[in-house]
Amino acid sequence: MEKKFFHHALRILKDVCIGCSHCMRVCPTEALRVFDGKAELIEDRCIDCGECFRVCPVHAIIIEQDDFSKIFDYKHRVALVPSVLMGQFPDEISDSEIYSVLQDVGFTWVYEVEHGASILQRTQLDYAKDEIANKPVISSFCPAIVRLIQVKFPSLVDNIMLLRPPLDISAIYCRKVLMDEGAKEEEIGIFYVTPCAAKIAAVKAPVGEGHSRINGVINMDFIYNRIYKGIKHKNKEKVVLPKQGHLNSVEIQWSLTNGEANHAKGRSLAIDEVHNVIEFLEKLESDEIAEIDFLELRACDESCAGGVLTTANRFLTVERLRNRAKRAGAKAMDEVSESSKVIADYEDYLKRHIRLSVEIKPRSMYKLDEDMAKAMRKMQRARKVMCYLPGIDCGLCGAPSCQALAEDIVQKKGSISQCVFVQKMMEKTKTLDTDHAFRIMERVWGQDKFIKNCKKKGADHESF
User: CA-to-CA distance for 175 and 191, rounded, in angstroms?
Assistant: First the structure.
């Protein structure tokens, strides 16, 4: 059986999908097609960025998460939370209240993942100085970007920084601390509260290592509702404040745009939103851009504050975190917080485990065949097919672009007669009759698209 390229957190509910093609049009890697009136995912192209999830008008695309009750399989239950979770709540709700409610719902230790940023930042500086490192060094923080480079920009894979992100560093730290205190490894359950789908996929099938140190993931929108409900029903006078070291200002802002780039040496750039990243990487790959030392690339607009599983407006989240950073006080990285001093006691141990254990390999989505000679022939055929396609990328064929349809055709996953322009020419030359052309469109869009329906959006009796 062929091995899957990636684990995917995104799921399409076929019984809910209406085949509107919104998802197909926004996918940055052209990983979606429409067939029989339903969206179809091409798994080896998908990077779990969640753009399809954002635009689906009927919520037919969902993001998996582990059953919350799974945390109770463990004696020691660690909640790894990103700082953007704190930014989801208004300023009048304190961090301590959030920690307290998380303990009330079952966690025995609440730990912000950005605590690991201090050690990463120091290690990053040494990594960037390494003469062997390919420039620009590309941050490995965002798993959607790592996958994007693997499938769309394979020539840049060697530029990806082979250091673990703060999430993994914090997971390693928490497990080590608990084991040093006498806990058995099988008694420790580490759960990450994720703001996006890509980090779920990264936990379930990590790139650059054999397995993850994290036992499960909980979607941020789910835990947000649990926390907010808990705070509203809790007597503030009875809040038990868990022991929790505070992040410094650099750590608080690490997951925001410029969180890494502001502290990198040399010429560094921060680019957010996946289509902006693609535009930049295309220029970088073609040598239009040079002399850059470090790139911070994030798939979401405003970085993790704009994750698809966040609840609050991303701009308000950024404002809250900036204010939180100001309250923490502007500190240089050597003026570490109390919690950073604690994690610093394990710095030597963490630095020994901070490098990825497995080389990141390219997985080009443009590979038409494993056999190079066959792939070249298919590429030539695709170019010939493009001669007959209109090149307007209308999407009526069920593919996101004419180029995508041409590739589908040479892979025997599509037919040139799916193109309505080709259909019209074939009808004109009597090589395709009208009934056959109609059946082709039904195979792509489903029979219901050709039936009057006043319940669709914008119609007389709109129902969704």
Answer: 11
Q: What is the pLDDT of residues 178-217, one digit of tens each?
A: 999 999 999 999 999 999 999 999 999 887 676 788 999 9
459 domain residue, yes or no = no
DSSP characters over 258-306: TTTGGGSSSSEEEEESHHHHHHHHHHHHTTSS----EEEEESSTTGGGG
Mean of pLDDT over the chain:
89
Q: Does 197 reside within a domain?
A: yes
- Asked whether 110 and 81 are in contact (CB, 8 A), the reply is yes
Phi and psi, residue 195, nearest 5°: -90, 0
**119-155 per-position pLDDT tens digit:** 898 888 888 777 567 889 999 999 999 999 999 999 9
Among 293, 319, 353, give the residue marking a domain's end: 353
Structurally, the chain folds into a number of domains equal to 3
268-272 and 294-298: which strand pairing?
parallel
Task: Give the number of other Cβ atoms within 10 Å of residue 43's Cβ.
Answer: 12
Name residue, tokens 């802002």: 253
User: Is residue 308 one of the residues assigned to a domain?
Assistant: yes
Q: 26 lies in which domain range? A: 1-63
| CA gap 72, 54 in Å, rounded | 32
The CA–CA distances, whole Å, from 136 to 294, 349, 357 equal 5, 28, 21
Whether the CB-CB separation of 65 and 219 falls below 8 Å is answered with: yes
Q: What is the pTM of this model?
A: 0.90
- Whether the bond between 136 and the residue before it is cis, its omega within 30 degrees of 0, is yes
* Residue 127: count of CB within 10 angstroms of its CB: 18
For residue 26, give the nearest of 52, 58, 50 by alpha carbon.
52
> What average pLDDT does this structure show over 422-432?
92
Beta-carbon contacts of residue 7 (< 8 Å; ≥ 6 apart)? 201, 204, 205
* Burial tier of 237 (Cβ tally within 10 Å: 0-12, 13-18, 19+): exposed
Same-domain check for residues 303 and 333: yes
The alpha-carbon radius of gyration of the chain (Å, integer) is 25
Distances (CA, A) of 411 to 204, 366, 377: 30, 11, 11
SS3 54: helix
